[in-house]
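Budget justification aside, the reviewers requested a transparent look at the raw inputs and outputs of the sequence design task funded under Objective 1. We therefore reproduce one unedited record. The lines immediately below are the structure tokens for a 301-residue chain.
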């Protein structure tokens, strides 16, 4: 796996202070709009029907809690960033939110049908064992775990040869050391084989995987990252999702092309004929994250 550090920060990636600072300038509405075009939306819709009792461990700004609660899912959002949760509660007092630690969940056993944790457990330098143990404990027998962690992709493997702030380590080498030449630990990235093995040992059976966030993965290529940073996207949901229309209600050629680009680049829709093969190839080569769909099984050796 890959151990990734950051310079010019006083906080480690697994601290609430880091994320409080990170979310201060974020726009909650843009986060919520993204749920409409989320590459993982088909996965959520399969495992979070109306009436499903769901926990999001590490809910951040709460967009998934809001979005799926509005669709009849009985979802609870938990996070260790108390100030962020307070801001969410001011805007949306009816959401079920809870302050807590994913490695010591304040819930009883066998309570949830689905547990989602996206981009959370990799930030704890001591490893994922406690968080995964807790996830299994609170899931009912046969419940579903949807968990995503950074993907140690072929692109990252290539870039790690020249990135001083990245270090290849073995899973058994996790530790509590947070300084490395004035850098602070940020996260681990895992190969699918490594993370599947961890999941199996801690009592989960992996049903499927899906790489996603290809553009974020490509940001790590310096030239491409700078070019992508200069691209501006409309904040209008109608423009983002549907595209502009002609007076007769039909989509123009330009709008149709923009819609196709959004399907490929934002929603990462691999069902598009021919071009979907390119999406699948890019997911394998340079996706930023990997989603693991698991069911609660028997504990491994």
């Amino acid at each position: 796996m890959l151990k990734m550090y950051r310079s010019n920060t006083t906080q480690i990636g697994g601290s609430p202070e880091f994320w409080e600072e990170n979310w201060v300038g974020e726009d909650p509405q843009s986060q919520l709009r993204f749920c409409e075009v989320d590459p993982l939306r088909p996965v959520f819709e399969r495992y979070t029907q109306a009436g499903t009792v769901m926990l999001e461990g590490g809910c951040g700004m709460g967009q998934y809690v809001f979005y799926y609660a509005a669709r009849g899912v009985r979802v609870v959002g938990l996070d260790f960033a108390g100030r962020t949760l307070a801001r969410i509660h001011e805007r949306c007092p009816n959401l079920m939110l809870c302050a807590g630690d994913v490695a010591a969940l304040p819930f009883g056993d066998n309570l949830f049908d689905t547990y989602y944790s996206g981009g959370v457990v990799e930030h704890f330098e001591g490893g994922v064992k406690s968080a995964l143990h807790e996830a299994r404990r609170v899931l009912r027998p046969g419940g579903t775990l949807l968990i995503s962690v950074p993907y140690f992709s072929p692109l990252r493997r290539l870039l790690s040869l020249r990135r001083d702030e990245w270090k290849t380590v073995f899973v058994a080498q996790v530790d509590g050391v947070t300084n490395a030449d004035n850098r602070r630990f940020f996260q681990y990235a895992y190969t699918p084989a490594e993370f599947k093995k961890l999941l199996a040992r801690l009592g989960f059976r992996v049903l499927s995987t899906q790489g996603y966030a290809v553009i974020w993965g490509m940001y790590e290529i310096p030239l491409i990252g700078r070019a992508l940073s200069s691209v501006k996207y409309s904040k209008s949901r109608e423009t983002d999702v549907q595209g502009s229309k002609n007076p007769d209600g039909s989509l123009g050629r330009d709008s149709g092309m923009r819609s196709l680009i959004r399907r490929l680049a934002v929603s990462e829709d691999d069902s598009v004929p021919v071009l979907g093969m390119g999406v699948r190839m890019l997911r394998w080569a340079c996706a930023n994250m990997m989603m693991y769909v698991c069911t609660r099984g028997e504990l491994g050796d």
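Strands lie at 2-6, 53-57, 74-79, 96-99, 112-118, 139-150, 166-168, 184-189, 204-212, 289-296. Residues 225-280 form one domain. Computational costs for records of this kind are itemized in the attached budget.
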